[in-house]
From TrEMBL:
Protein name: chitinase
Native source organism of the sequence: Xylaria grammica
GO annotation (BP), single: chitin catabolic process
Class of enzymatic activity (EC top level): hydrolase
Gene3D superfamilies: Glycosidases
Residue ranges constituting the GH18 domain according to the UniProt record: 25-382
Swiss-Prot/TrEMBL keywords: Signal
Length: 389
């Protein structure tokens, strides 16, 4: 090979390395039927590497008859036309409360094969780049955990990796496959040292839902998407066999509030008792918690309190989360500001060498997209850091 050709080869490899390093981190957005809003500004779309359309109901794939009508709020073709060339468009299947279809699918070898065959047909028919399996949660602790006890779902722990393997086989190696997985250790019933390696054998990456880490099943105040709790989530998956570079950290583009017990929280709001927040028999919400995205109108009854939370809230350096305690209303507020989003990159994504990030969801941050901008900036900073190393 001539010197000139060697020089050309070296320049090509350097260019390829630079291009690859700039896109090392996955930057995934769930696009939801609740807020199907896509920014007009190309600078807000260009950094997005994957879009997951959420959701298609899991029971859609349990029929024996072939059906080319795949119901979802936005077609893959339409979504693809709205994002930059090269953006991967995936279809997310399931979601909170959608467990029945997965239960039916996972039960037998035959039902797993049928479900997988139909998922592959959907991907082929829609032109999607892959699927995200959002079963919340195999093994129990889903929305129906009071009606169907975890003991009745223990079989799903073994069946879950079998179902994933069947889907992977039907999709083939060229399509993407991911799973959205619980962020709270108590919900990781199906994600053990025995099962995680088998699960990861079928997946390109995990979307760890490091949000809603405080919910109505808790009895003390904490950060619903805090740094330390997020690290606990990530560390649990890594310890059980998930490669760090296949893990994506979840970001929540919404705020949450909880009604606590009042005076006892005045001196120490973090870790303050909340009292019972769900019905102990049915699991139903007792009306002590709420939330809304940045695109939603703030509920009238908490609007004034939220305004104080935005202007007077503070960041907890120990637990890593933005919070506000409204003493007058006995309301605990927990959410990420753009500055809190930025802190997670060095503290979690860089520290644990994760493969990417994702957010629920893109339209939830409209119209200002302040949290999205902070997320993009964090991805860009880490990409530049890798280029410099």
């Amino acid at each position: 090979m001539s010197i000139l050709n060697w020089q050309r080869l070296v320049l090509f490899l350097l260019f390829a390395m630079a291009t690859t390093s700039a896109t090392t981190l996955r930057n995934i957005m769930y696009l939801t039927g609740q807020h199907p809003i896509i920014p007009d500004d190309v600078s807000l779309r260009a950094p997005i590497t994957h879009v997951a359309l959420a959701f298609m109901n899991s029971n859609t794939f349990n029929g024996d008859d072939y059906n080319s009508d795949w119901p979802i709020f936005m077609s893959v073709e339409q979504a693809r036309s709205r994002f930059e060339p090269g953006t991967k468009i995936m279809v997310a299947i399931g979601g909170w409360g959608d467990t029945g279809g997965f239960d039916t699918a996972a039960r037998t070898e035959e039902s797993r094969a049928r479900f997988a065959r139909n998922v592959a047909a959907m991907v082929r028919d829609t032109g999607a780049d892959g699927v995200d399996i959002d079963w919340e949660y195999p093994g129990g602790n889903g929305e129906d955990y009071k009606k169907v006890p975890n003991e009745a779902k223990a079989w799903e722990i073994t069946a879950y990796p079998l179902l994933l393997a069947e889907i992977r086989s039907a999709l083939g190696p060229d399509k993407l496959m991911s799973a959205a997985v619980p962020g709270i250790p108590r919900d990781m019933l199906a994600f053990t040292a025995a099962t995680v390696p088998r699960i990861m054998a079928s997946l390109d990456f995990l979307n760890v839902m490091t949000y809603d880490l405080m919910n109505r099943r808790d009895n003390v105040t904490k950060h619903h998407t805090g740094v330390q709790l997020s690290l606990d989530s990530v560390n649990a998956y890594i310890a059980n066999g998930a490669p760090a570079d296949k893990i994506n950290l979840g970001f929540a583009f919404y705020a949450k509030y909880f009604r606590a017990e009042g005076e006892s929280c005045a001196e120490s709001p973090i870790g303050c008792p909340t009292g019972l927040m769900e019905d102990p028999e049915t699991g139903a919400d007792l009306g002590k918690t709420g939330g809304f995205s940045w695109h939603d109108d703030v509920p009238e009854d908490v609007r004034g309190s939220f305004e104080k939370a935005v202007s007077e809230g503070r960041y907890d350096e120990q637990g890593g989360g933005y919070w506000y305690w409204d003493r007058d209303r006995a309301l605990w507020w927990t959410f990420d500001t753009p500055a809190a989003v930025a802190r997670k990159f060095p503290l979690i994504v860089q520290e644990k060498k994760l493969g990417g990030v994702f957010a629920w969801g893109l339209g939830e941050d409209a119209p200002d997209f302040a949290h999205l901008r902070a997320l993009h900036a964090g991805v860009e900073r880490l990409a530049k850091r890798k280029d410099e190393l």
